[in-house]
Design a protein that fits this description.
heterodimer, A: 379 residues, B: alpha/beta, two-stranded antiparallel sheet, 13 strands, 27% helix, globular
Amino acid sequence: MDFKLTEEQELIRKNMREFADKYVEPIAGEIDENSRHPAEVFKKLAEGDWMGIPIPAEYGGAGSDYLTHILAVEELSRSCASTGFTVSIHVGIACMLVLLNGTEEQKQQYLLPMAKGEKLGAFVLTEPGAGTDVMAATTTAVLDGDAYVLNGTKTFTSNGPTGDTYMVFAWTDKAAGRKGMSCFIIPRGTVGMSAGTHFKKMGLRSSQTSEMVFKDCRVPKANLLGKEGAGLVMAMAGFDHGRVGIAAQSIGIVQAALDESIRYSKERVQFGNPISKNQAISWMIADMATELSAARFLTYHAAWLKDQKVNFSKEAAMAKLFASEAAMRHTIKAVQIHGGYGYCKGAKVERLMRDAKITEIYEGTSEAQRMVISGNVLR
Amino acid sequence: MPNIVACFKWVIDEAYIRKGASGALDFSAVDYKISDYDRNAIEEAARLKGLHGGSVTVLTAGAPEAAKGVKDALSRGADQAFFASDPIFNQLESSQTAAILGEIIRSRIPYDLIICGEGSSDQYAQQVGPRLAEKLGIPCISYVQKLTIGEGGRVLAERRVEEGVEVVEAPLPVLVTVLPEINTPRIPGVKDTLMASKKPVVTIKKEELPAIGAARLQTLGMTATRMERNCEKFAATPEGIAGFVEALQKKGVIS
């Protein structure tokens, strides 16, 4: 066994830490407060090839591996979970969908600008009545001459208001069940596709989320991704990749909670001693550090399996389940350690706790992860 | 088109040094980095190459683990690296480092301009640059905050000196030691780091170099500074100031 990162991975991680400290940490509170998409940061991320790390160079990426992308998401999320997530869904789901399923033309036209960070990707699957139950979706795509015509309403679309390249799922043959859904690449500005206004959320506020409405939206046949009817299988594979990203985002959050808790508990004096001297506090920190390590190993292992080109579906679900629940548990503890100060706006742990909650919900709830895991182990 | 050599030192990242209970420094969980001002030196070399063409060679002497630092340096715009590698090279004192770097440059690297950081993040002895210039018999310009290569192969340098700024000119070849104000070092992108592994590195073993002299300096001990707050407050009044002076005297800080 070898638990060592490569020298390149260590350097890349350090460079991302420096990037996040310099450009993200100082604005993380403000973009949360104002629900603002930090376009200026994404421009810089693009310049440093951070928006397509595992995508081959011929398609605009850095040509590295998935684990390296995961390290970047983790470090970015340590400063701002919203920014980390936006990179994660862009690379892990939108870019990977085209890389794994696209034609050469689609890769050149859509993947290349996404992997370069010139265009932002979005994943459009969830509907008001179809969350975990993807089969309950109602959006349809009907072939009419040389184009599919899409009708329906999607919701909770991350990068909805800010995206450029949308991966949209719709029924091409509802009667065919699991083999009846297809995926379309739809560029921003296509007539008949519109994004709603950004939702006001509890956390992850600078990540832009909205409804997407499709009204007689004509999409050329050439924009069908993969085969007709292969949409659901592609979406599930996309989730496998995305979930490792959410796990990375979660460990970034736990690491930040730990950093803050260590710093504060050493500074905060009560009854004549720093509160870190109290067993009640030091044990919380011990648990936090332990579960962070466990979550990190699960996450890196899932990413490593992906890089070894073996099935990592179960491991991705396990990493996401454990890391996201650890993020929730320990950000609550971090606020507890900070007491009243942690409950006030401006305290980083307050934001971390709100941001942590979504990691247990999106890209499959914790319950959905347990469905995937149990489905695998009870097989 | 100038051949530029940037020298750097791979040092302990002070952010990872912990303070033990007795004030002793704990190095058990440290990470390493390119010394801060040396990053400015490499950046300046890359910046000048961007303007004038030529080549950038990075050079260091260190323990074999500093190979990671060599990659880091190569990801910052350098074309090639020379690396004097030996387990004892992380304990060199300035005169020995200058002797090694000087020998390597003299015998192996064509140069017009050599750039060093003003001092290293760990010892900050400010010795290697001037000593290296002396070894090579070329002019040395220290405390440089702005550097220009002008017509006819001369450099123009702004030196930050105590009472102001001194502008000096010197013919190439020349060595300069730079201050952090000279530029903002880049944060290498992912491709920069990946490409660094493909750039040529010449590794030189201790045996390939003339014997280095014995170290003359010995580190006897190293302890952390301590800051204690007494939470005594003094008003900005004559009585308050008198009380402040009295308190300092009582502590033995002034007499």
